[in-house]
Design brief:
By secondary structure, this protein is of the alpha+beta class. Helices cover about 40% and strands about 20% of the residues. A 5-stranded antiparallel β-sheet has the order 2-3-1-4-5, sandwiched between helices. A 5-stranded mixed barrel has the order 6-7-8-10-9. The longest helix is centred in the first third of the chain and has 27 residues.
Length: about 375
């Protein structure tokens, strides 16, 4: 194949990979993890072939971009060794500062994944290991204020998880405050990895059924499900909405900011083997698909947006427990959650729309900030 034919073929493969990447994105937004992975694998194969056709031409303007894309697809598909090789080839090209930074950031994530997959012996049953990744963290350093905030949030998250696993009421703080402690070891050398241990206070019987392994397993399961974008699955795993929203609030607090911290590795021993999750969804990413509960007391202070917004999705359920504040819950087709407030004077029967695909039109409600919260104007069955 001559040079011009190679460039043309590379461009065709790149376009095909971009189409597959789009399909993977929409599959993830829809919560279809298996389809997302399959499209990502196909995109990797196309982009890797496109990159290979330029391997002998490192000065070509697409050399670095194609290798970076292929490495990213390989990373998302779980092909960490292949991703590492593609990154190395990408770094031989004429990368600008932004591309070089992205390549090294991806390389750090790939190597963290490889370390999480290593055959090290399981950690202690009561031990949870957290590894922060980022330019400073990789050198064994983290901003003191950020670390302090992170540790406090992890501490609170662990306490809440213990209360949930042991089936206590959400507000029974004394259960976790008085019966166990959270202890942290110094960071490991060469990275920023901290071990956290859950230690019961006094006699073990003071907290019946206390099992640190079950608590760590719940933490890993929650972050794995959130990482994959399956919020409906995560929510249904909780018997209490209070605990679900509490976890989401703290997950946003400990999530990477995408700059100083780009990913967090979470490890623990579960069922005599080590399990791990690499969590790299940012707080902004979580906010795009998650809507926190609204304090009804604050709804007295709002104003409606001028524009009318439409959302298509499945009407999951309605909350009519509070007179005058009936609220619809809507799971949109992009996997985002919406809260639809029904005006007092809305006279139509909404029950027939339950668990149906509907199109809702409404105006944004402003309380403290704009969010996925609409005041209902109209609702109809979606036909398109």
């Amino acid at each position: 194949m001559d040079l011009e034919a190679s460039f043309n073929r590379s461009a065709e493969l790149h376009d095909s990979a971009a189409d597959l990447e789009d399909k993977a994105y929409f599959a993830r937004r829809a919560g279809d993890t298996s389809a997302e992975i399959e499209y990502t694998k196909q995109a990797y194969l196309k982009e890797a072939e496109a990159a290979s056709l330029l391997r002998q031409h490192p000065s070509h303007h697409m050399h670095v971009a194609l290798h970076l894309n292929a490495a990213l697809f390989a990373y998302r598909a779980g092909y960490y060794h292949k991703s590492e090789i593609l990154i190395a080839h990408g770094l031989t090209g004429q990368a600008d500062d932004i591309q070089r930074s992205e390549l090294y950031d991806l390389l750090a994530k790939v190597r963290l994944c490889l370390s999480l997959e290593s055959a090290d012996p399981p950690k202690l049953d009561n031990e949870l290991e957290l590894t922060w990744q980022g330019l400073e963290a990789d050198a064994g350093l983290l901003d003191v204020n950020m670390l302090s905030s992170q540790m406090k949030d992890w501490h609170t998250l662990l306490r809440s998880t213990i209360r949930y696993v042991l089936s206590y009421q959400f507000k029974e703080q004394s259960v976790s405050e008085n019966n166990f402690r959270v202890l942290a070891a110094p960071p490991k050398r060469g990275s920023f990895k901290i071990s956290i241990r859950l230690v019961p206070v006094g006699k073990q019987l003071s907290l019946p059924n206390f099992d640190a392994t079950a608590i760590n397993a719940r933490i890993l399961s929650n972050f794995s499900t959130l990482q994959s974008g399956r919020l409906s699955t995560l929510r249904s795993s909780y018997e209490s909405d209070e605990y679900y929203h509490d976890f989401m609030r703290h997950a946003k607090s400990v999530a990477p900011d995408g700059e100083r911290v780009t990913a967090i590795g979470i490890e623990a021993a579960v069922d005599d083997r080590r399990r791990s999750v690499l969590f790299d969804r940012t707080a902004e990413d979580i906010s795009s698909v998650y809507v926190p509960p609204v304090d009804h007391e604050t709804l007295k202070q709002y104003r409606l947006s001028d524009e009318l917004h439409e959302v298509i999705g499945e009407l999951r359920y309605a909350d009519a427990m509070t007179p005058g504040l009936e609220e619809l819950k809507l799971q949109a087709e992009d996997n985002s959650e919406w809260r639809i407030h029904v005006p007092d004077n809305y006279g139509h029967n909404l029950g027939r729309f339950y668990k149906s695909r509907v199109k809702v039109a409404g105006r944004f409600k402003f309380v403290d900030r704009r969010s996925n919260l609409l005041q209902l104007e109209s609702i109809e069955f979606a036909t398109e």
